[in-house]
Amino acid sequence: MSFDEVALEAARAGGEILRRRFGERRDLAIETKARHDYVTEVDREAEAAIVGVLRRRTPAHAILAEEGSLGAAASDHRWIVDPLDGTTNFIHGVPTFAVSIGLTDAQGLLAGVVHDPCRDETFHAVRGGGAFLDGAPIRCASVPGLDAALIATGFPFREMSRLPGYLVAFERFVRVTAGVRRAGSASLDLAYTACGRYDGFFEIGLFPWDLAGGCLLVAEAGGLVTDVQGGRDVLAAGSVVAAGAALHGAMLEVTRATL
């Protein structure tokens, strides 16, 4: 079984729990990890299902998961798991959330999957193999400039000290683009950028599990992915600018000046 197939199996196992439990959300026990950052029993249940698949299929691989599950500590391969990207949406009944799974090796991102259980859409990619939505190839949009671009973003709710600079960037994008959207799931924002629904995406204050599933999708769909200053180690930086190759530079001009 390929790494892509392992990731798909694990993502669907977690997604089935999210889909089933979404109708029971009013009875959930909700904990606060930090201000505006929540975790539920569903996050943990979905993570357990995902990690169970990964441990069974790739027992020698390390695992970094948002809610704390760990695998082998010493390995060139590491799975990075967000079992429920969009917990606040889930809690409030907004059907915009996803399972995000990425695999890294010594060269960087190797495989990525973002699974949307509400729409039953699965985005996936393997390094050098292209990006796909439910098995069909996808490509980033080729919008050449910001004036016609629809871009996505996320608010830095974990790092409110960075809000002033972010609001400057937000205003600049609002003034020069066709529109800015904030849906509340970074992995889906990246997946939508990879398939051309969004022309680009930027956000700061992120963790590796927010990014690992989706960044490879954009790269394999012909786009560019950097941090907000143009660096390539996005997972370490915790920020991202992702867009088609023709638009990325224009977005980066804004984020470099403000963030």
Could you explain the architecture of this structure?
The strands form 3 sheets. The chain has a 7-stranded mixed sheet with strand order 3-4-5-6-7-8-9, sandwiched between helices. Strands 11-10-12-14-13 form a 5-stranded mixed sheet, sandwiched between helices. A two-stranded antiparallel ribbon has the order 1-2. It folds into 2 domains: 135 residues, Fructose-1,6-Bisphosphatase, Chain A, domain 1; 113 residues, D-Maltodextrin-Binding Protein, domain 2. With 259 residues, the chain is an alpha+beta fold. Helix 1 runs antiparallel to helix 2, helix 4 packs across helix 8 and helix 5 packs parallel to helix 6. It has 8 helices and 14 strands. The termini are far apart. A hairpin with a 2-residue loop joins strand 8 and strand 9. The mean pLDDT is 93.
Topology:
Elements: H1 3-22, E1 30-34, E2 37-40, H2 41-57, E3 62-65, E4 78-85, H3 87-92, E5 98-105, E6 108-116, E7 121-126, E8 131-133, E9 136-137, E10 150-153, H4 163-176, E11 179-181, H5 186-194, E12 200-203, H6 208-220, E13 223-226, H7 234-237, E14 240-244, H8 245-258
Parallel strand pairs: 3-4, 10-11, 10-12
Antiparallel strand pairs: 1-2, 4-5, 5-6, 6-7, 7-8, 8-9, 12-14, 13-14
Helix pairs in contact: 1-2, 4-8, 5-6
